[in-house]
User: Fold this.
Amino acid sequence: MQKEALIPVVGVVQKITQETPDVKTFRVVGPDGKNLFDHMPGQCAMLSVPGVSEAMISITSSPAQTDYMEFSIKKAGKLTGWLHEMEEGQEITIRGPYGNDFPVETELKGQDLLFIAGGIGVAPIHSVIDYCIDHREDYGRLQVVYGARTPKDLVFYDEMTGPWKNVPNMEVDLTIDREAEGWDGHVGFVPTYAAELKPSTSMKVLVCGPPIMIKFTLQGLKELGFKDTQIFTTMEMRMKCGVGKCGRCNIGNKYVCKDGPVFRFDELGELPPEY
Amino acid sequence: MPVTETKAFEPKIVAFCCNWCSYAGADLAGSNRSEYPSNIKIVRVPCSCRVNPMFILKAFQRGADGVIICGCHPGDCHYSTGNYFTRRRMALLFSMLNYLGVEKGRTRVEWVSASEGGRFSETMNDFASTIEKLGPNHRLEDLRCKQK
Amino acid sequence: MQTEMIKRAKELLADGTVKRVAGWRSGDFQYELSPSIFTDAEDLEKNFQYSELAASNMSKYMIKESRKEGKVLIFLKPCDTYSFQQLLNEHRILRENVMIIGVACDGNLDIVAAKKRFGEGLLSLKSEGDTITATTIYGEELTAPRQELLLERCVNCKSKKHVVFDELIGEEGVEVETTHRFDKVDELDAMSEDQRFGFWQNELSRCIRCNACRDICPACSCENCVFDNPESGFSNKGAAVQMDNDMFHIIRAFHVAGRCTDCGECSRVCPEHIPLHLLNRKFIKDYDGLYGEFQAGSGEQETHPLTKFNMEDLNPTEALNRGDEE
Amino acid sequence: MLSITEAKLYEAFAQLKKNGEAVYLPVDNTSGEADFAEWKEGTAISKQLKTVRSAKDFFFPQTENLMKFKVHGKKINVIDTREELSDFVIFGARACDVASFKLLDRAFIEEKPVDTYYENRREHGIVVSIACSKPAASCFCTVYDIDPTHPNADVDGYRVDDTFYLEAKTAKGEKLLKQIEPMMSESDDQCVKDQIATTEKILKNLPFANLDMSRFNGDNMMDIFNDPKWNSISETCLGCGACTFVCPTCQCYDIKELDTGDGIERFRCWDSCMYKDFTQMAAANPRPSQKERFRQRFMHKLVYYPKNYNVYGCVGCGRCVDKCPTHLHIVNVIKTLGEEGK
Assistant:
């Protein structure tokens, strides 16, 4: 992390990719063209445009990608709306990396992994999947269950149906909420689909998506026999400082920006349900 | 050799002008080539009663030395009664500002119709000279907005 | 009086007329009475208190309480009823869900003034006739004239009459004809601009922007205050420059102008004892003088001076300069 | 012990000011309360026990500029606007204030990353305490094992009538006393000992001296969190920030921006967990009603803090007890949840 926790550095948005109608991926490098800082999968950074706003955004790209960082961002609020309007070459400010990461080097190493994501929730999960693909020999089977409202809203569709299909011992299952023209894949909500697939209960699960999806996914997994200690997720709260000092993103005695955003469900179970 | 520049005080003035009368009056003043100071910044509002007291304070905060509100003459409001409300509101607000020690002349309400181009420039000239006499606004200022 | 109030509240709870009772609860010090909502008879018996220390005006809580299930009973002092009536005029309270018992009031004691008089070790206050006796943790027993320890709003009491109630306990009073409410405003108005500026800078510079004045104010009942809205450009929570404080207080007072009943809660709760009521009273004095006397909440009112007009109203500059020629 | 009379003290302040060190001390204001203010010729030290605002302002001011941005087209320039600080003296802090600095140090310095804005001020601030001789009814620092007769600052001071007895406790303190040595004289400190003895007697009899903290042991977080008493106790909380802003240990802040017309200044300002916009997100608020916000404030001080650090996030200064408009202060919470809730 930078020495001055609150003073951001300048980053240049080198490339903007339209992923879906309301999601764009922003590639950020330093003014010198080099990567700004290293991170681990699941970590976040504070992006801001002076005069607009500042927001915590999870890093989508793999840590193995050392040339740049990528952020897949859905147009939702003030800052994200502004980012969606801007052009390549625009400078933004950035500070981080913040928070903990998915325990890819410890608990998850050597394990079969099940990734369940919904909508833009795929952003932090993408970083982990990329990491696992980059260190393919360190992990067992990789299974991705990903869903969105419509086929058009599936972020990273090309990557999932292209390069990821060719990764050994990796499976990608896509679903959309409602029937759509030209879609011959699965139709149905992510939690139901994940349960239908009857994943092996020996897997470790990483879930990310809207709260309602997480809730039902968790229910389904538990019915299948998964334990809280096997399931990881990332949390989202209002944040200002990003370094555990401004005091608003706590869940009980834990700060999401510092002790999170990645939590194992048994850890969350011990905390007040204020999220 | 260092040159000490004594810059004459150039007041910054914000004029809120109602769309239907005063803004048109300002237009007319322009096309008649009647002069009024260039440091008056006109903000067009749909009606003088659109001017929230916060607009006035914000203008002072951001460096204005005087704020003037121009609307239709009483009885002529495009929305029939808007300027009557302006009249009461601003009477109370200006009195409050003065109560807090802000000089009386810094705020003003004037009625200027669309046909009164001459009156518009006269009003502005008069207001500008009042503010010049009063000097810079120090009682409702935000120094952060004054550093250059 | 307190016994009578508890008795009546218990009856109303018991026969199911009301489900909750809004009143004053004994606190950690004898002189600290918290506004509180009681739901059972035992609690009322043990903790309900009404005395000259029951300063809180509970009308504002009725916005929330009247929307809950079942009727709520509230005890209101005469000046509290003005705030209640004003909230009714603004359609903020569901009247059918509130039962009001008006209680007589002989003025509230000013704890701040008492602490200044008797010291920070103040333990209890008791008044007998015109004298107040205080005890302190240092074992002292001190006295002072009661009149000197009354809240400002009580010294200049505007009314002992309840403007809205269902029942009354204690003797009903009348509106006070002559008060010295505007003396201090007049005094400030008579000062020079420089003096006034100095006065208010000294007062307002102490503001810590805690929003207690806003949050206690029965007239400040917006769902979302402009000062809490990050989009408004005014939501800074502390003053980086004096202007921020000035702006907050001007706008706060302006937003309640015409609706402020002059209940004095803002000044009572200010941790820095800024005489905020002097801002509200300036507006009252001005519209009284310009547009005819008006007391917010004194009855059912459709409009107030800022929501109506006369063709003959003075222009702001004329209004500001009136009296200058005299 | 070294002693200095009040008259000589002001000479010493003048000397320090000449040396470039500003002195801040509690001064009575026109409302009859005291607040810290910078010493100028003629400023007299207040005799009151507490200032309205705590001394945390010096290290963690209510608003503080963090940086400035200049935007030109697509380019952004980040400017660190901090200026070099000179040493400054806080004269007359109480033991509770001194204890609060240690809690703030934990949040801003010991918990990495370091908050350099705070650290910088902390390094330049020299704290001279004055021991309490007449604690107030609302004081309860002894509950947290704070000894108001031994504040433990850079310099510990005692005021007996118009004489101040000073004793350096740190190198910083020694350096300070060195500068004003000529104004001081060595004197007998029996009167200080007598004063401490008298104070100790008052302390034992304070109304809140025996608050029962045993339920707040850091272990039963969920038990306290789910206590139904939070419903009734928070019901009439106004949601104002008076308790937060007078609190010497509250550390929450907001980061905001101001477009000055000449760049954008990003500043931080105190925030309060009692405010509803504190945790408001675009779609939801994890603490939707005043109950959750009220609970958060006291859970933080009485449960989360001890759970994480084994120390309470309260120093018992009693400011919130004095200032809460509805008297729903921390003592009320400790009594309601702690004693009756067991």
